[in-house]
Amino acid sequence: MDNIDLFKEMELEGFRLQNNQKLSTVLIDYIKIMFRRKWLIALCTIAVVVPITIWIMHVPPSYRADATIIYEEANDTAFLLDLGQTFYSKSAIVNMIEQIQSRTLAEEVVRSLPEDMIKTFKLPERLPEHLSRDQFIVRLIREELQVEHVRGGDILKIIVQANDPNAAKNIANSYVDHIIDWNTQKNRKEISSIRNFVEGQLSVFQDKLRDAEEALVTFKENNDVIQLSDASSKVLENLTEAEVAYSKARAEREALQQRKHIIEQKKQELLPSLGVPVSKITQQLKEELLDLERQYSRLQLQVGLDDQEKLASMREKINQTKQDLIDELMHNAAQENLVDPLSQIRNLLQEAITIDVDLETCKAQEQALKNAVDEHDAELQMLPQQELELARLIRAKEVNDKIYGTLLEKREEARITESGKIGDIRVIDYAELPIKPVKPQKKKIFVLALMLGLSLGVGLAFFLNSLDNSLKSEQDVEKCLNLPVLASIPNISSNGVLRKITKKEDADNLYSSKLLSQLLAKSYIFEAYRSLQLNFSLLNPDKNLKTVVITSAAPGEGKTLTSLNIAQLYARAGIRTLVMDCDLRRPMVHKALKIRQEPGLTNALIDKAAHLESYVQLFNDESLHDNLAVLTCGALPPNPSEILGSKRMGDLLAQLEDMYGLIIIDAPPIISVTDSIILGQKVDGVLLVLRSGKITREAAQKAKKILENSKIHIAGTLLNDVDLKKVYGYYKDYYYYSNKKMAVES
């Protein structure tokens, strides 16, 4: 059991290592892509960062100033409790925000700014025809104005941005002062409407009182009756009390109607169709409340001082019933989605419901008192004529006197409240002078621009890489062709490596200068060919490769240079090596070695009697020790494929195998012509040369398929002209240093 668990654990560990290896491979591939396209990424980054940097350096700074206010609920109509229990609701936060952001308030703020501060605004050389200077500044201020509502409270933050710190501070504070002034004027206006109503009633009752007093004096002067009997006085006292109470109830009803009119106007501004549904419970509570008010009014006129507790008990019951009715109406409104606890709608609804309930109860009380007045007036009618007339005059005088006194008290209370009204808005913090600009946020913008440029460059690099279908690295070749890569030959550039090694500048000798004979024996390119020699033997242990065709999928892959350098490498190792130029269409061997083209291969095939040694040329180089021979193409024939596929060609190869230890054949590209296929069937193996970054996957796969279909042994592939910096991401300076050191030591 333990062995099984150990095996499973080892298997899981193997899976984890495999996944980690795959992830590492993917990351390395990504890094290679970015490194290969590093100049593109850098160019995209510069193209984004430089313009944005120039822009942020020329953008004028913007300063931010914040002022904080709070809206507090007020109840300044407490002096009118006798005229109805109303509530002074707070304005909705939404309405307050709209007022602050309004054009009218912005115009008042601009008018209050001093001229030197107006000049801090950056105005265009030519204003729009339909806008004045102040109107244009109003537009600028409104564009840079923000009002934030602190969630869960009645706090507002007024935010102003301007190019001048003093302007930002003063504009924010000016907004605070003006909105407080607006609010104070609005609240005083509502209280003034109630005061005006009281003053209007006061003037009316003042005239009535004066007329009543004059009529009483005139009656007493013209008649002998100057006072009433005890019975008549009692009737008059009851009638006077009832009429005073009735007049107060009527005045209270009119005040409530006045207040209801104001509330209805506010409701229409917010929601014209606002209404509260009436349920059965609501109707029952309403009828119960009206009945209690009628009972209270009658009891109020009947009981004495000893029964005040009974009146208080009934008043408490009335208040409780009224509150139940208000709660029920608010509940109905909430079910109809008419109530928003955070807005003015809820306050207006509650106030409207309260006023409606008070109006109904006030009307019931007024009607009950009217009935009581009529009853006592009927009793008064039974008095003698002169006593009746005197009683009426005394009643009118006393009623008007009491009502007039009450109205005087209410007027003074209204004046005091109005003069002390400062509004519902309180300042928490005035704006302070900003020290640092909030715009432009140079560091943040620069970082974002850098990230944007890098993202754009990386994205474009991966996009171009997805379009690039060429083979670049050994991993690409092995994954695409499933063939071994014997070596990766670095790029031999006349502008880079070659100049550091050979110092040759002649463009005509460029091709020849890339031969191994022209390179230092310990250069990194030389070492790459040595790895090819080693891998060539290791990967083909079962085959004695004496004849090898070196070809490519397409022209320009570097097969000729590869053939010559491999031949030189084996020749240095003491192996007699022959290079045959079998590219009878575009021969390059004689040009690279700067030797004669004719006579060559075609001449040897035609001249059967001649000795082969007469057509073979030795490549003179001390390091090769006469081990490298070359058989050039000779005269170019009109039918290369037929010549290469002839029996004479096979016999020639057999003779040469006896003479040389290794024969390397430079053949035409596979896809272009069939020459390489014909030759491949006569030799021990084929080496396929692929140029890094040029050969496409499709071309390489097609070349492999052609060789496999022809049953030709593929000895391996060689990746040529590899840019180490782009493909593998490392530099060749180490090799430069070692080469230079080696040259000095030599």
Features:
Rossmann fold; 4-stranded antiparallel beta sheet; 746 residues; alpha/beta
Structural class: alpha/beta
Whole-number tally of structural domains: 3
Q: How many individual β-strands?
A: 12
Work out the strand percent: 5-15%
Q: Summarize the main sheet.
A: 8 strands, mixed
Low-confidence stretches: 75-91, 270-276, 337-344, 494-508, 730-746
What is the terminal separation in angstroms?
Answer: 67 Å
**Annotated CATH topology of the largest domain:** Rossmann fold
* CATH homologous superfamily title of the largest domain: P-loop containing nucleotide triphosphate hydrolases
- Which strand order do you get reading across the main beta sheet? 5-12-11-6-10-7-9-8
Count of individual helical segments: 25
CATH architecture of the largest domain: 3-Layer(aba) Sandwich
Helix content: 55-70%
Shape: rod-shaped
Give the radius of gyration. Answer: 55 Å
Look at the structure and give the mean pLDDT.
Answer: 75
Give the gist of this structure:
The protein is α/β, with parallel strands linked by helices and 746 residues long. Helix content is 60%, strand content 10%. The chain folds into 3 domains: 79 residues, no CATH class; 202 residues, no CATH class; 277 residues, P-loop containing nucleotide triphosphate hydrolases (Rossmann fold), CATH 3.40.50.300.
